[in-house]
Automatic annotation (TrEMBL):
Transmembrane segments: 78-97, 104-121, 127-144, 179-205, 217-240, 247-271, 283-301
Domain Sodium/calcium exchanger membrane region: 5-144, 183-323
Keyword Membrane among record annotations: yes
One Gene Ontology term, aspect cellular component: plasma membrane
Entry keywords, A to Z: Membrane, Transmembrane, Transmembrane helix
Molecular function terms, GO-annotated: calcium channel activity; calcium, potassium:sodium antiporter activity
Protein name: Calcium/sodium antiporter
Pfam families cross-referenced by the UniProt entry: Na_Ca_ex (PF01699)
NCBIfam families per record: calcium/sodium antiporter
Amino acid sequence: MITTWLLLLGGFVLLIVGGELLVRGAVQIAERLGMSPLVIGLTLVGFGTSMPELVTSVQAGLSGSPGIAYGNIVGSNIANILLIAGVSAVMCPIVVARSALRRDASIMLLIAIAFAFLAMTFPMGRLIGTAMVAGLVGYLMFVIRQERGSGAAGAIHDKSTAFSEADLSISKSSTQSGLFVPLLIAAAGLGLVVAGGSFLVSGAVEIARNLGVSETVIGLTIVAVGTSMPELVTSVIAALKRQGDVAFGNVVGSNIYNILGIGGATALIAPSMVPAEIVRFDAPLMVFVSLAFVVFAATGMRVGRREGAVLAAGYLAYVWLLWP
């Protein structure tokens, strides 16, 4: 049993370290190829910080564990709102930009509703996966055009900003020339992420068997929180720096990536049904907490400490309900 928990912990460590190295290498490559900071932030940094969830869900799907695959996606979105946004708001009230609320938070809520409906109605097959990934690409293109034209930052931009400010090596261009070292860093990061995802899924499946709980419960809680650690760290750092607006965008942007990007990629690579437990309870709960978060944000354009405490307490209640 101890070995299994060490396997799980090792998977988490490899995912987080590998994800950071992958982002760092990819950003340096993009800078030397002349990509703009806006495009780098919205694409490479955005995808890179979601890599732990992506690799874990895809590997779980390929291993025949849809409970971990989709539990990770839905559980991460619930944890992002209740746990991460809740803790961040308690530390520093989250100020909400109108553009992020009107555009990005609304889209987050709409795609949560769409996912819950699709999970209840259809298998998550390649057609749905293609549509979800295409939706993310279209959304990113729309955001890039809009932010270039108006300069108005949104949630996806804040997601990359939060990570960049948590790791200063990302936000500063390297003065070194050549692509070999950045390519090596990115390749090493990718290798660590893949290995970490494999360890994490194997450990999670074994722990579920040893504890006598379903893989879905493990995916919704332990795996989801573990793969959301980059978002937790970056949001807490943003709160400590009194950058509550960045914390809001980080959560909303991560939730958009999780459903469209990770859910879409999982459906494309490993088509399966979403487990009935998630369809009946967790997916509707994800919609409810997304709506509550939007309502909290819309009241006074901020999420205060009391509202943050309610969100954090809600996550404790959620975990208590899930575990037998």
